[in-house]
Amino acid sequence: xxxxxxxxxxxxxxxxxxxxxxxxxxxxxxxxxxxxxxxxxxxxxxxxxxxxxxxxxxxxxxxxxxxxxxxxxxxxxxxxxxxxxxxxxxxxxxxxxxxxxxxxxxxxxxxxxxxxxxxxxxxxxxxxxxxxxxxxxxxxxxxxxxxxxxxxxxxxxxxxxxxxxxxxxxxxxxxxxx
Length: 178
Description:
Layout: H1 2-56, E1 63-65, E2 71-73, E3 78-85, E4 92-99, E5 102-109, E6 118-121, E7 135-142, E8 154-161, E9 164-165, E10 170-172, E11 176-177
Parallel strand pairs: 2-11
Antiparallel strand pairs: 1-3, 2-3, 3-7, 4-5, 4-8, 6-7, 8-9, 8-10
């Protein structure tokens, strides 16, 4: 009988060894699942940030205000400004004009639209469009109609590319007289 007891004891020991291996495999699998979930979340965050930075990368000098055609005519109360777009595809441009402590902001897009108190120069068309790639257009804002009684202090623009608003690409802080 002592031999049978010893054999039964060995069988029990082997089963305990097997359960330790199974437990280790389960822990390794669990860690791999957690790493996959964390990697997926981090990867999506990084890709989203890269898309935004790639859309706005290199925009600084490619979307600009042309100071030669940006001026204020005090006798007519009109503010003329010119936007130039280089070798880049731009969906919209946000324009901000400030004077006497207040400001007005509007969006100029590729599709023709009407913007209050703004017309194209020299045609005076109210169908406002954004310049195409490697081109520029000039616009005229009726300052009194926009709520200003003084000359503008500054103008700034910020492009929108792939539905991502980029930071300010250009500004003019000293507006010349026409």
